[in-house]
Amino acid sequence: MTIEKRAATETRAEGRKLIGYAAVFDQETRIADFHEVIRRGAFSGSLADGKDKLALVDHDSGKVLARTKSGTLRLHEDERGLRFEIDLPETTLGRDILALASRGDLGGASFAFTVPDGGEAWSGDKRELRSVVLHEISVVQSFPAYGGTTVQARSRQQRTDADRRIALLELEAAQ
């Protein structure tokens, strides 16, 4: 089985935690010579399998930011897509990614996956992903394949009620 990679755009920064979406549902994109869409629930089986998932930089296994096994990477599906939270390490790599995210210089988020038997459906040149095996997510420094995903840096700083309302309005506007 070949491991495939998909990515998306939009990055924002604020604090020490990266949050965002590595994949969004029901958004069609062009991949090589076909169109692809990820359906709701495509990651549910993989997220429930208990296997360790990694958060990397640019799909490079030598650039680990976090992992589910240690609790520094949290993944779940919601109505929008595959949401992640990464607790950035106090390392040169973690500080560099935080600096790029804070400036808005990251290209987005991405994910690497394989498709199990029966996990996809084809109609002409359109591929529908219904079930995938997630291997890792990545912070992408340059050009992603999918639009609509997000990466944001967050801190545990105290927020006022007004700050929380503004953040909620920004999230609603982004959807």
TrEMBL record:
Chain ranges of the Prohead serine protease domain: 10-157
Q: Enumerate the Pfam families for this protein.
A: Peptidase_S78
- What GO terms are given for molecular function? peptidase activity
GO BP: proteolysis
- The organism's superkingdom is given as Bacteria
Q: Which UniProt keywords apply?
A: Hydrolase, Protease, Viral release from host cell
- The molecule here is called Prohead serine protease domain-containing protein
